[in-house]
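retry 2 of 3: previous attempt timed out while embedding zinc ion. Reduced batch size to 1 and resubmitted. Inputs unchanged:
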Amino acid sequence: LSIELFLERLRQRGERVTMQRRQVIDVMLEHGEHLAVQDIQSCLQERGVDLTLPTVYRILQWLKGVGAVCQTDLGQDRIVYQLVGERPHHHLVCLTCGTVMEIEDQMFAEVRERLRREYGFEPRIDHMAVFGVCEGCRKAEREG
Ligand SMILES: [Zn+2]
Ligand SMILES: [Zn+2]
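retry 2 succeeded.
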């Protein structure tokens, strides 16, 4: 996905793309996945763009509001952000050992379909974290 295509989609929806907003999107396109607000700020700094954390945060909230960015708690010290639709995937997060595993988007196909059909609800399951206990930890628990 190119920056121009991405911006075009936002403009088509009547969103105003300021220079600062453009810079944040550009950094996210370049650096990919699981970026914390602080990561985005330092990437911007490397390019000579100085934005405060609250400014970066506000831009991310706007992007989230228009459905362009998703915000996920992976059970770590930072909330992570990423662009929607780049490479759809989700995560299993172990509450015991903290391991973060990746699972395919297809896992949620039936959930989406049932939510639409049975609740008339259009879900935005963009980058989910499912918390639980991993196989290794469950085995360790069983074996005491
Ligand atoms: Zn992820
Ligand atoms: Zn575990």
